[in-house]
């Protein structure tokens, strides 16, 4: 008979839906099954006098009510959710018309009322438990017990405990009150881990409880990372990630929110793993990129995740894994595409009306442009490591405008560092004038001041007693050393003297003699005619170093590696090797000059 065909198709679709991993596909299959049960019920309505048909109709209506509940839980739109709940309510009441004491129908009504009408839900639940005991229906009794526990947990959350702790802890973390935030979040996690409250967290079955547990673990992982407990942060983060796995229990969030939250979580896990020197960092960044791609979220998020993943792949290439280059190149190119798209969308957005919005708009723009420059520098480095200087020059040309971004905010030093890396790549392919421009930009962003270079205020000499940012001073010193080498390469003796004079004023007086000697060594290596170059450049060096005023009482010069790196460009070293050398710190009073001399000998 036709109703039997509909019922069989509905059962098959339901079985298939429960094995479907994708939530959207599962919702579609369940909706189709629900439609089949409705057709079967319509055909059975005229035959309810027979006891057998009445039982079959009751089964169809109960199945339809349960399926409608599942469709409601998977629905992403409020309209779809309300419609599914209305269907569930209608079929549950229709089932009670056939069997007024059916506990399963009452459980459906109790679940529907649990969200907004708790007292009505409790009434349905009491009747369902009573009728289940009367009929000795163990399945209905177990469901009633589980639902009762869920309602009690939600009631506790409303009056205090975990929900309030998580909300308060998250707010405190955002305000920077890490210890108190950590205490509250740990309290929430410990509470939900207790067996008396349905724990451990991994055993929670209801979506609201699992969502709250995820929020608590995610925020706690951030707190632990903020105080450098990266191992603890990884442990909490991985527990949170486990809640997102599709399995027997409900995932905390429906798509696309589930994938978006997964992407954000794995971005944090990647940074924590890297700080903990864990080998999993690369896989975490990969999962973050994949999650954002699934969620089809904002291009800024996907671009950021792809950039982080691509940068780590470049590190793998630098470490000798040339196969990683095959994945690094398209990853970085897609990251750049997404970041450009995000910036374009932001510029086309509504204009900010107040000062606060304008500031946020400017910070978002700066962040996207800085990440674009990161991406371009990495692509250029990758091309150079593969011996493709033509492609590297194309990247340099495409990113030259990013060095002209005017920015005066907390990320100045990051911009300065990127300008230095861009300059290294430009010098590698012989674009020395552009390298010099980038180095001057690096110097200015790091805090160098001189009216002759387009900066307001006095030169780099600071008032007595002032204390410059140590990283800023280090970047200034690196820029000036590199600038002297670039100018030496183009035989600009006056420019070399100028850079050396500025470097002298940024160097402690006790270290100037050592700096002079080391700089002379590297500058002489770059001379076209060593004899004439030595004779021409030595007086400039000595004059520049001797004319300096009393030195700054600041941290020691740490740019020996930078000197060696730019000198190495002439010898044809790869950008990967240069970046490795640039990461080495050379404090004059700790290590002997023999170390730097060995590097210099290796460049020949």
Explain what you see.
This protein is mainly α. The protein folds into four domains: 157 residues, Tetratricopeptide repeat domain (Serine Threonine Protein Phosphatase 5, Tetratricopeptide repeat, Alpha Horseshoe), CATH 1.25.40.10; 136 residues, Tetratricopeptide repeat domain (Serine Threonine Protein Phosphatase 5, Tetratricopeptide repeat), CATH 1.25.40; 92 residues, no CATH class; 191 residues, no CATH class. 74% of the residues lie in helices and 0% in strands. Helix 9 runs antiparallel to helix 10 and helix 22 runs parallel beside helix 24. The radius of gyration is 33 Å and the shape is elongated. The termini are far apart. The C terminus is likely disordered.
Secondary structure layout plus pairing:
Layout: H1 2-18, H2 23-44, H3 51-74, H4 78-98, H5 103-113, H6 118-135, H7 138-159, H8 161-174, H9 178-193, H10 207-226, H11 230-243, H12 257-275, H13 281-295, H14 299-318, H15 324-348, H16 355-385, H17 389-399, H18 412-428, H19 432-445, H20 470-489, H21 493-505, H22 512-525, H23 530-546, H24 560-571, H25 575-582, H26 593-602
């Amino acid at each position: 008979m036709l109703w039997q065909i509909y019922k069989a198709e509905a059962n098959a679709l339901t079985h298939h839906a429960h094995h479907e991993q994708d939530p959207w596909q599962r919702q579609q299959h369940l909706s189709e099954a629900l439609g089949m049960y409705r057709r079967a019920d319509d055909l059975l309505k005229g035959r309810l006098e027979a006891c057998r048909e009445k039982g079959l109709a009751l089964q169809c209506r109960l199945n339809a009510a349960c399926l409608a509940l599942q469709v409601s839980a998977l629905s992403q739109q409020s309209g779809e959710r309300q419609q599914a709940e209305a269907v569930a309510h209608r079929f549950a009441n229709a089932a009670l018309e056939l069997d007024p004491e059916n506990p399963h129908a009452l459980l459906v009504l109790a679940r529907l009322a649990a969200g907004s009408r708790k007292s009505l839900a409790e009434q349905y639940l009491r009747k369902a438990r009573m009728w289940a005991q009367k009929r000795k229906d163990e399945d209905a009794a177990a469901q009633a017990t589980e639902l009762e526990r869920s309602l009690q947990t939600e009631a506790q959350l409303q009056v205090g405990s975990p929900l309030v702790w998580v909300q308060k802890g998250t707010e405190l973390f955002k305000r920077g009150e890490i210890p108190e935030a950590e205490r509250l979040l740990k309290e929430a996690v410990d509470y939900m881990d207790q067996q008396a409250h349905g724990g451990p967290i991994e055993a929670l079955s209801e979506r609201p409880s699992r969502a709250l547990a995820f929020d608590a673990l995610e925020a706690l992982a951030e707190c632990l990372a903020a105080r450098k407990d990266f191992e603890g942060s990884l442990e909490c983060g991985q527990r949170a990630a486990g809640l997102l796995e599709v399995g027997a229990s409900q995932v905390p969030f429906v798509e696309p929110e589930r994938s978006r939250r997964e992407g954000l979580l794995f971005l944090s896990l990647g940074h924590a793993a890297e700080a903990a020197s864990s080998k999993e960092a690369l896989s975490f960044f990969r999962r973050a990129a994949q999650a954002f791609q699934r969620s089809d979220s904002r291009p800024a998020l996907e671009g950021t995740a792809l950039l982080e993943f691509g940068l780590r792949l470049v590190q793998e290439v630098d470490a000798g894994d040339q196969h990683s280059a095959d994945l690094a190149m398209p990853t970085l190119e897609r990251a750049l595409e997404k970041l450009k798209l995000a910036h374009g969308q932001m510029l086309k957005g509504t204009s900010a009306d107040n000062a606060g919005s304008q500031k946020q708009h400017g910070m978002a723009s700066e962040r996207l442009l800085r990440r674009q420059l990161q991406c371009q520098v990495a692509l250029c480095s990758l091309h150079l490591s593969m011996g493709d200087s033509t492609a590297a020059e194309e990247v340099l040309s495409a990113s030259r405008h990013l060095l002209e971004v005017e920015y005066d905010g907390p990320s100045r030093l990051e911009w300065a560092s990127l300008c230095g890396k861009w300059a290294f790549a430009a010098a590698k392919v012989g674009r020395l004038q552009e390298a010099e421009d980038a180095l001057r930009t690096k110097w200015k962003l790091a805090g160098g001041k001189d009216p002759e270079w387009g900066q307001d205020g006095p030169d780099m000499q600071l008032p007595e007693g002032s204390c410059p940012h140590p990283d800023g001073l280090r970047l200034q010193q690196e820029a000036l050393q590199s600038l002297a080498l670039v100018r030496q390469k183009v035989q600009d003796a006056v420019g070399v003297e100028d850079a050396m004079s500025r470097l002298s004023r940024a160097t402690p007086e006790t270290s100037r003699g050592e700096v002079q000697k080391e700089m002379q060594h590297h500058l002489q290596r770059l001379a076209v005619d060593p004899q004439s170059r030595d004779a021409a450049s030595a007086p400039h060096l000595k004059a520049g170093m001797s004319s300096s005023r009393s030195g700054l009482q600041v941290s020691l010069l740490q740019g020996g590696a930078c000197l060696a790196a730019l000198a190495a460009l002439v010898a044809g070293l790869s950008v990967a090797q240069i970046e490795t050398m640039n990461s080495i710190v050379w404090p004059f009073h700790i290590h002997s000059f023999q170390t730097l001399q060995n590097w210099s000998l290796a460049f020949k």
